[in-house]
Specification:
- It is a single chain.
- This protein is of the alpha+beta class.
- It has one domain: Glutaredoxin, CATH 3.40.30.
- It contains 4 helices and 6 strands; from the N terminus they run E-E-E-H-E-H-H-E-E-H.
Length: about 170
């Protein structure tokens, strides 16, 4: 039996940082920024900018979804409780954080397999769709489609013009 074709991120679920299965369909109609995170990375201070985005736009229908990942330089070694404590105490993170996942390789979370297939990597070249590092960001429209992919070095604030467009659409 072949795997069903996924049409949007709403066809997926993921385990929350506190262990509950979350259907991403609960975010239907929202603009989303989905990002793979790590606590011991040079880009970790982006948590603050992601939280700023979340607080600025959540009342207009936007959310940030964080997915901790330890695949890049073992920069997310903590367990879920340690990750939660780090995010809250160091950056005041209130946006949803999910359980640690793989974003590449045979054990990559199905959501990330989908996101990479929808928004390939460097210059859109086939085969370069793998996530290259922590804090790669995907922008999702209200229909659950990936409409943008941003490099780790791209500041979350640089997504504001696109977020504004999607919220106004």
């Amino acid at each position: 039996m072949t795997e069903a074709i996924q049409k949007s991120i709403y066809d997926f679920s993921a385990r929350s940082i506190d262990g509950h299965e979350v259907a991403l369909a609960q975010y239907a109609g929202q603009v989303l920024v989905i990002v793979n995170t790590a606590s011991k990375c040079g880009f970790t201070p982006q948590y603050a900018a992601l939280e700023t985005l979340y607080r600025q736009y959540r009342d207009r229908g936007m959310s940030v979804l964080g997915f901790p990942c330890n695949q890049f330089g073992a920069q997310e070694p903590g367990n879920e409780a340690e990750i939660t404590q780090f995010c809250e105490s160091n950056y005041g993170v209130s946006f949803p954080i999910f359980a640690k996942i793989d974003v590449n390789g045979p054990n990559a979370h199905p959501l990330y397999k989908y996101l990479k297939s929808e928004q390939s990597g460097l210059f859109g070249v086939i085969g370069l769709e793998g996530i290259k590092w922590n804090f790669t960001k995907f922008l999702i429209d209200r229909a659950g489609k990936a409409v943008g992919r941003y490099a780790p070095a791209t500041s979350p604030s640089e997504l504001v013009p696109e977020i504004e467009k999607l919220l106004s659409a």
